[in-house]
Amino acid sequence: MSASKPPLKLLIAAPRGFCAGVDRAIRIVELAIERYGAPVYVRHEIVHNKYVVDSLKEKGAIFVKELDEVPDGVPVVFSAHGVPKAVPAKAEERGLEYLDATCPLVSKVHRQAERLVEAGKHILFIGHAGHPEVIGTFGQVPEDQMTLIETMADAESYQAADPDNLAYLTQTTLSVDDTRDLIAALERRFPTIRGPKGEDICYATSNRQTAVKTMAAQCDFVLVIGATNSSNSVRLLEVAEREGTPGRLIARAAEIDFGWLEGVRTLGITAGASAPEILVREVVERVAAHFEITEEVVETAVENMTFKLPAALRAA
Ligand code: 0O3
Ligand code: SF4
Fold this sequence. Notes:
- The protein folds into three domains: about 5-20 and about 205-300, 4-hydroxy-3-methylbut-2-enyl diphosphate reductase, catalytic domain (Cobalt-precorrin-4 Transmethylase, domain 1, 3-Layer(aba) Sandwich), CATH 3.40.1010.20; about 20-105, Rossmann fold (3-Layer(aba) Sandwich), CATH 3.40.50.11270; about 105-190, 4-hydroxy-3-methylbut-2-enyl diphosphate reductase, catalytic domain (Cobalt-precorrin-4 Transmethylase, domain 1, 3-Layer(aba) Sandwich).
- About 40% of the residues lie in helices and about 20% in strands.
- The chain is built from eleven helices and twelve strands.
- Strands 10-9-11-1-12 form a five-stranded parallel sheet, with helices on both faces. The protein has a four-stranded parallel sheet with strand order 3-2-4-5, sandwiched between helices.
- Helix 8 (about 205-215) runs parallel beside helix 9 (about 230-240).
- The model has no long low-confidence stretch (mean pLDDT about 95).
């Protein structure tokens, strides 16, 4: 007779997983393959998730790092994170058919950057160096018009040539709490600095952080499903850890080390905006093979956001 499994309560955060921008970006690649036939090239991972990328590869997508790897005469999709202006300009120069899967909320930040520069402002951009969204947003304006602020030390040490002519913008997937502190420091040092009307941190990022924060307070351990290069997913683990709950970021269920769950009675599960729900179920199933589980959802918001497809794909 097999020994009975120990009990484990699972809390599952809501909202979690795909946001409207990710849904739209994946749909754009799928529809482009239907419309133009395979292969369709995609510049950069469409979203930062290997499972998503591999599924689209199976359907006929080819992923490349740079536009010059795309042969002439085939369509190319730009990823959800956005691209510098030079990228579509180069595609046009080469006569390439392109579809822009940049999330509309990232494009909104691009337009704000352009407008602020037109108004003569110098922009302090709060974000993480090297991230594709940051590279894309910097590529909307002349190089000397935007400065990256990554840390509190950057915010405290930035020397402005014209302190009364500053504005700030942010990456969409930052920590809500850290960004609030950075903005407060900038506003204290530069009282006339102009900020965005709404928030640049998007609804999906802030909703997932609120949900994981609430859930983590009730858990002994948290599993965040997402990639290590996924900014919003990495932030979810940080939020849980700051609530005092240890956790791990995992790409797939196979990465779970059951040593992590020794003595854990309540396990929290969430997923980044680029992680599909099927990976959440995979994790629940692997955990259920070791424990007698009960499942409960911790819901802090209901989302019903959707974004329109590009006009080229809307037509019948
Ligand atoms: O920007 P991030 O690394 O979080 O990107 P992901 O993981 O692909 O998630 C989608 C979010 C996005 C496209 C930018 O806001
Ligand atoms: Fe758009 Fe936010 Fe999703 Fe990024 S995380 S793709 S900004 S909705």
